[in-house]
Amino acid sequence: MHEIDPGFGWHIWATDLCLAALHRRGTGPARIVRIPLFHNSFGDFSLPPAFHASIAVLNEKWRDLGAIATLNGTFGATV
Asked: Is the pTM of this model over 0.85?
């Protein structure tokens, strides 16, 4: 079973759930469909400090993956 990691706070938790499901195949009924999306939000096109803190958690947790594509950009060790 996949669970939301509280270390992410509000941001990036769904990306983490998707990565967990992809890397733990056979542990549940989750299916990931890779489709192009865009983040349909209005704002000043800057990401809040809490987002960057969540990205740091994501990069540490999944550091062996290198680049990780999200709706807000590509992040990771090789970016």
From this structure: no
